[in-house]
Amino acid sequence: MLISEIIRKKRDGGTLSDDEIATLVAGITSGEAADEQVGAFGMAVYFQGMEADEAAALTLAMRDSGDVLTWDLPGPVVDKHSTGGVGDNVSLMLAPIVAACGGYVPMISGRGLGHTGGTLDKMESIPGYSVTPDNDTFERVVREVGCAIIGQTGTIAPADKRFYGIRDVTATVESIPLITASILSKKLAAGLDALVMDVKVGNGAFMPTYEASEELARSIARVSTAAGVPCNALLTGMNQPLASAAGNAVEVRNAVEFLTNVHRDVRLEWVTLALAAEMLTISEITENRDLGFSVARAALEDGRAAEVFGKMVAALGGPGDFIASYDSHLPKAKLIRDVRAPSEGHVCEVDTRAIGLAVVELGGGRKRSSDEIDPAVGITGLVDLGQAVAEGTALCTLHAQTEDQLDVAEAQVRAAYRLGDPPELSEPVLDIIS
Predict the structure, then answer these.
(1) pTM above 0.70, yes or no
(2) Catalytic machinery residues
(3) How far apart are the C-alpha atoms of 76 and 343, rounded to whole Å?
(4) Topology at the third CATH level for domain 78-155+171-326
(5) Second label for 414, Cα 20 to 30 Å away, from 22, 98, 122, 128?
(6) Ranges of each domain in the chain
(7) Fold for the domain defined by 335-420
(8) SS in 3 state form for 177-222?
(9) Helix (H) or strand (E) holding 64
(10) Which pLDDT score, from 0 to 100, does residue 114 have?
């Protein structure tokens, strides 16, 4: 079966068989399919789409292109995936909360992309923390601690790793069937019993409209469930940064303060506990969402979740006293500068994407895949949508290494905030799709 003929069939709007998809994925994995052919296939799917059965077949073929983990644990194996946003450090609190409630969370995460932050980049700001352990270490930490946040290894869904890299440079990332297969191939390879999706909606989201976000959520829930892994999806708001911090070390600091009850951003707490409740319910640890919410909150309030996070950090090479001494371990930028409100009023609009791009300008994100990230830089104290401010009030604080970085980021942040009449605010969780 010629790969070029498979591409031709999809280009012309045909429906691919399971065997044709398996042949293509085998070619992506082995290198038999040239980069040009993989890019052409991605473009064909981008314009022609895929039926649900095709998307499921692509997902399973990419899952099976590498190692598929199996578990023998006394509790359910459950995970969450987010489509990404600004100030979205939910994973850092969510994994230990669910683990403290009896779940096992093998969380395979990604790096930052464009204006969105990456969980791996955040975890790497912790000295010594390894995001690429071997499978034996990964499995041991999940078994002993209850959770482990790591990156995609070369043996987990290698077809997706290559395919995504080609999609990223051929303008074919924004395809719902391909996004579905990319996300689920990695998650299903982790041997999950259940999955919860956090699909962002708003001006800082990956998908451009509410309708597109909802379509993606339904696609992932449908394909995952068809593959034998029950999946529900939450649609959550991203018309402002989720946490009051955006960056890497600054978001880790925010997460530890959340876990230890030093400070919790209200919207961040709401979304985190809603996702925890969904994970506990879909994995049948609790009978319903209300009970799941209460159980998750209790694990947060009594310190069990913070204890799990500390054990995970230590087990993956980080400091053994990280929870107690996080501030001394996390890197700090040389310079700080407040961005002050030019007039009084209410924050009536935030260009969330621009806030994320300001973090990139500070050095906390990548303009090219080869760029090194500075873990110390970022933004803290971000003012919430709807908050009243006086002239001269700090809208946020920039953390940078040079004055030039501060100047560029300050201009972006000033342009991102609009002051005026109080806006109509929506709840952080917009809908739940089963």
Answers:
(1) yes
(2) 79-82, 119, 167, 182, 186-187
(3) 52
(4) Pyrimidine Nucleoside Phosphorylase; Chain A, domain 2 (3.40.1030)
(5) 122
(6) 3-49, 78-155+171-326, 335-420
(7) Aldehyde Oxidoreductase; domain 3 (3.90.1170)
(8) HHHHHHHHHHHHHCCCCEEEEEEEECCCCCCCCHHHHHHHHHHHHH
(9) none
(10) 62
- Show the 3-state SS of 372-412: CCCCCCEEECCCCCCCEECCCCEEEEEEECCHHHHHHHHHH
| pLDDT-derived band at 168, boundaries 50, 70, 90 | confident
Q: What is the mean pLDDT of residues 354-360?
A: 94
The type of residue at 294 is S
Q: How far apart (Å, rounded) are the C-alpha atoms in residues 370 and 356?
A: 19
What does the pLDDT average to over 2-29?
Answer: 97
Integer Rg of the chain from CA:
21
pLDDT at 370: 65
pLDDT 10s digits, 301-327: 999 999 999 999 999 999 999 999 999
In whole angstroms, what is the distance from residue 343 CA to residue 254 CA?
Answer: 28
Let me know the angle formed at the C-alpha of 360 by 355 and 363, rounded to the nearest 5 degrees: 135
Residues 6 or more apart whose CB falls under 8 angstroms from that of 20 comprise 1, 6, 9
What does the pLDDT read at residue 75?
A: 97
Buried-exposed string 307-318: b where 16+ CB fall within 10 A, e elsewhere: bbbbbbbbbbeb
Tell me how crowded residue 17 is: count the other CB atoms within 10 A of its CB: 15
Cα distance between residue 314 and residue 109, in whole Å: 18
